[in-house]
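Field log, afternoon session.

UNIT: design team B
ACTIVITY: writing a sequence onto a fixed backbone
BACKBONE:
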């Protein structure tokens, strides 16, 4: 009888230990883990370029989700399409959230995109999008930071040349870290979902 009385508590203790170990093994990941951020941790960072209203830094928008795109105002398709997608994202957000989102359009064609033209171009799509550019050296430094690329291509058109460039929107969180990239062929709902997740 005494032996049986001792066996039961021992068995219960063993079962409790197994259950505890199982719970610890399958405990959900904590919110401090950010695997998406680490994917692009080698990209991005602060920069400073010029806008019609003065210098603009990425750090100016700390606390906001940012959508960033490289392009040029004479772009016939990809740039206006991507800017229209940004506009759709802003239009889909309630006012309170809209104030916490910023669009940035970086022109890689400063020779033709002066600050007045760039401002008018971005404001046509939405007032929360700022157009910025700089010298070739400044632009090259930013494109290197963001692993973006561009090059000029001579054409027979009246424009003289075209610019081939990276066609993706960088989604940047409220601390200035790139969390995702959205391709130009994605519907606006893809970008909207990623931006909303940061608010």
């Amino acid at each position: 009888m005494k032996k049986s009385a001792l066996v039961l508590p021992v068995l219960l203790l063993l079962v409790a230990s197994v259950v505890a170990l199982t719970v610890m093994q399958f405990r959900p990941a904590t919110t401090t883990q950010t695997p998406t951020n680490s994917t692009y941790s080698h990209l991005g960072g602060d920069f400073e370029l010029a806008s019609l209203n003065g210098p603009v830094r990425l750090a100016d928008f700390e606390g906001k989700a940012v959508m960033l795109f490289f392009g040029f105002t004479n772009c016939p398709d990809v740039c206006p399409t991507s800017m229209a997608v940004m506009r759709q994202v802003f239009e889909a957000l309630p006012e309170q959230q809209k104030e916490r989102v910023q669009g940035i359009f970086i022109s890689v064609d400063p020779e033709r995109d002066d600050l007045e033209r760039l401002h008018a171009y971005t404001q046509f799509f939405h007032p929360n999008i700022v157009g910025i550019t700089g010298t070739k050296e400044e632009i090259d430094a930013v494109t290197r930071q963001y692993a973006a690329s561009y090059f000029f291509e001579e054409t027979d058109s009246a424009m003289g040349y075209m610019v081939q460039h990276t066609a993706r929107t960088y989604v940047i969180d409220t601390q200035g870290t790139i969390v995702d990239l959205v391709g130009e062929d994605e519907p606006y709902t893809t970008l909207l979902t990623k931006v909303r997740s940061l608010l």
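LOG NOTE: The chain has a mean pLDDT of 84.
NEXT ACTIVITY: expression trials, pending approval
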